């Protein structure tokens, strides 16, 4: 006797169907990333900003951001641009471990738990924001 609550047997998707679905998801993700980059880029900034951050690339006047050291602001600016730790380390000529230490200090000073919250907090501040990095 078959359980009536069980899902009906559905045909397994083919590799081509899975590939088409994956491509559709990736295209959607690319559109979201492009919109996010447009939001993060300061008005009038040239497209494809350089990867090196300057401390002034973050909005000033926020008590949270003003508590950061110059290096923490540089690391945070690169984080806002969407860079992973390894690329931040290479851009600033420091080790991955040092980037992690700076990020931990940034998270504590901003009162956030992770990268996403840190970026959201920075982008919520009025003023210029670092533009996205070039892929």
From TrEMBL:
SUPFAM superfamilies reported for this sequence:
C-terminal effector domain of the bipartite response regulators
Domain named HTH luxR-type: residues: 61-126
Q: Where is this region: Disordered?
A: 43-67
Q: Which GO terms describe its molecular function?
A: DNA binding
Keywords, alphabetical: DNA-binding, Transcription, Transcription regulation
The protein's name is: DNA-binding response regulator
Instruction: Please note every region of biased composition (Low complexity).
Output: 43-57
Q: Which PANTHER family match?
A: DNA-BINDING TRANSCRIPTIONAL ACTIVATOR DEVR_DOSR
What is one process in the GO biological process aspect for this record? regulation of DNA-templated transcription
Q: Name one Pfam family in it.
A: GerE
SMART domains, per the entry: HTH_LUXR (SM00421)
Recorded source organism is Actinomadura rayongensis
Q: Which InterPro entries match?
A: Sig_transdc_resp-reg_C-effctor, Tscrpt_reg_LuxR_C, WH-like_DNA-bd_sf
């Amino acid at each position: 006797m078959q359980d009536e609550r069980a899902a009906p047997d559905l045909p397994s998707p083919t590799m081509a169907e899975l590939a088409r679905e994956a491509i559709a998801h990736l295209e959607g993700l690319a559109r979201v990333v492009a919109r996010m980059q447009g939001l993060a880029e300061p008005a009038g900034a040239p497209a494809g900003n350089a990867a090196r951050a300057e401390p002034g690339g973050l909005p000033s006047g926020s008590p949270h951001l003003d508590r950061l050291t110059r290096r923490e602001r540089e690391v945070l600016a690169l984080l806002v641009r969407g860079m992973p730790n390894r690329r931040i380390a290479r851009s600033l000529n420091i080790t991955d471990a040092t980037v992690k230490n700076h990020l931990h200090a940034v998270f504590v000073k901003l009162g956030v738990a992770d990268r996403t919250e840190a970026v959201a907090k920075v982008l919520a501040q009025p003023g210029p924001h670092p533009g996205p990095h070039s892929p």
